[in-house]
Amino acid sequence: MAKGANIGLAALSDDAGSVVVGLSWSSAAGDGDADVSVLLVDGDGKVRSDSDFYFYNHAAAEDGSVQLLGKVPTENGSEDRISLDLTAIPSDVATVVVAASQYGGACFGDLDDLRMTVTDRSGEALLGFSIPDATIETAFIFGELYRRNDQWKFRAVGQGYETGLAGLATDFGITVDEGEDEDVEGAEIQGGGGEEASAAGRSEAARGAGETSPGVTETDLRASDALRIPAQANASTDRAASAPDGTAAVPAPLSDTPQPARRRGTRTAKKKVTLPKAAKKSLAENDSWKPARLFPVPSYKSDREREVRATSVLLSVMAEVPEFGRRLTAGFGAPAGRMQTFTEVSLPHGDSPKRPDGVIRTERAGKLWTALVETKTNGNPLKSEQVQNYMDIAARRGYEAVITLSNDVALEGSPLVEVKTDGRRKHKVSLWHLSWAEVAHQAQMLIRHEGVGNAAHAWLLQELLHYLQHENSGCHGFQNMGPSWVPVRNGIDGETLCQGDPRAVEVVESWERLIRQVCLRLGGELGQKALPVQRAKRGSDPKSRRTELADRLCEEGKLSAELRVDGAQSILSLTADLRTGKIRTSIDVPAPDGAYPLSVAKRLLRVLDDAPADLHVETLLEGRSGPRGTLERLRPEPGDLLPKDGVAISGFRLSLFKGMGSSRGGTESGFIRSIDEAVDRFYSSVVAHLGQFEQRRAPRVASAADTSGAH
């Protein structure tokens, strides 16, 4: 679509009552990012209250009309997805505004391929809108969905703001309240976990989706002033000053009516329940006693028994814990409503009935959303013929989706199963995939970081997580590098692997699946989004990108990846050298401007006081590498990190090395386990402590992108 154009959704799809909006971008440097936000505005173009503003600290509406689904990796960058149930949007909302903002001095001109897409609940793309002319803008309205004669239409807006999200928010009735430091400080007290959390650090409490009332402040928007929302002429004062659950959400509204006295800057919200990481002291007589479990994991002899039990355990918890059920199905177009789940359902198909592993049915306002579920455990692959049968059954019986669930990880441009769709059928069925690793990730995010409605729900999710992580469940996620792994390693070792070998492409795909799973696990532990960084050429397709990486593997014998944790200033690099059998994890830390080099070196070593003695520290200079050594050798002599010729230091590279396993990943010495252990050790013992060093840096220093050229 062209900028300013509009179109009715009904003209594009027979079923546009629920849509998924995607905002995507890419960056050649790999460090581009932005935050999405959604505003619900009335006929006057203003928000009705603070709860009409959705962003990372207020990610979902209670009625399910808006849900920010978070970032997913794409071939050239990342995409933020938003689920909109247009049938649930309140009648006094005239327009849904979809925007994004940059922070930390970045602007949208630094990003490439700015694009907004809208798909229906089946996943079929309805429209797309690109913004090719971004320059110094720090916030953008990508597009808006608006009502016209009881129908929803889309308008391609593409309006930029140099004043960031604060300037955009002001246009829709959010007033910047400058100079009230007490209110700013109070705004950082989050109700979800009872912890203080600054938005700059994006701590666990601040990232809890729906965990607190939105309490929109400029602090939340990565700036310095408190925001508040005045009462609108067509909205009651009480509504403008309250969160959805009726608790105080913002400072007193602008009104002539006297307000009751209250402590300035404090906010309350309906508290969400999370579980502490440290378990309570056991009352057992000795360590051999095992606690009773809701979902015990017996030693099944057949994969079929594992599949039946895993499906039943998962679907039952989805139905009983609304936050969890919504989290797993919102991206598939399911509405927020009453959910029921079933297993071993017999459905007619030709001469003999078929039995999908499960069925999900969600009801809202008398309308049903239904999906068939096909499950695999223990690394068993999905079968195309089986999935095709369920797609055909779903199309004939009016089901909206088929959901496959296995240990494998889906990649863009590389489907797990091939299915054919009959274009003559009016009813469209979407095919979606979940990995068991993603299921475990979502459970962990809820019970450790974001919270659920009550303690019983938290306990149910904890029992589910324990079941999934048990060695006998068969739900361990991606755990096999595939049949090409050993031949490729042997070919690299013997220098017989040639460029263009299709087995190298298969290994690159397996590596990409492994990295996606590593990101899920790391993000679940930290309570932050962790995504692989893509540095593909603009316009490259998945196949050509993987072919190029496979040729590089044949030439260099290395598999490389980069990971970015949401809110982190630097990128974590990971390299598996198949020739030497070593795994390298590293990160580049920019040096502060204007500080004495020896003071910087001493401070870095103090921050790394608890890091492993075998940590390699390398000084980065402009255009070349500098002195290097292990932490054990450098601790007594920090001056050894300084260049002899007095050249300015741009930063430091910190690296740990580990031997890799030789098997496919199913044993203690497996390659996959080695990668997991390497990332865990590096992040917990090195990266987790670097915040103390980075906090004392000058306001503007070289970014990770600036130092990444030294790779």
Identify low-pLDDT runs.
Answer: 178-215, 218-269, 664-669, 696-711
Largest sheet: 7 strands, antiparallel
Q: Helix tally?
A: 16
Overall pLDDT level = 79
Based on CA inertia axes, which overall geometry fits? globular
Percent helix:
10-25%
The proportion of residues in beta strands is 15-25%
Question: What is the rounded distance between the termini?
Answer: 39 Å
Gyration radius, rounded = 26 Å
Structural class of the helix and strand makeup?
alpha+beta
Strand order of the largest sheet: 19-20-21-22-25-23-24
Would you report the number of β strands? 25
Protein described:
The protein has 16 helices and 25 strands. The strands form 5 sheets. A 7-stranded antiparallel β-sheet has the order 19-20-21-22-25-23-24. Strands 1-11-10-7-3-4 form a 6-stranded antiparallel β-sheet. A 5-stranded antiparallel β-sheet has the order 5-6-2-8-9, with no helix packed on it. Helix 5 crosses helix 7 (436-450) and helix 7 (436-450) packs antiparallel against helix 8 (455-469). The model is unreliable at 178-215, 218-269, 664-669 and 696-711 (pLDDT under 50). Helix content is 25%, strand content 24%. It starts with 5 loop residues before the first strand and ends with a helix. By secondary structure, the chain is an alpha+beta fold. The chain is globular, with a radius of gyration of 26 Å. Strand 15 (358-364) and strand 16 form a beta hairpin.
Summary tags:
711 residues; seven-stranded antiparallel beta sheet; six-stranded antiparallel beta sheet; 16 helices
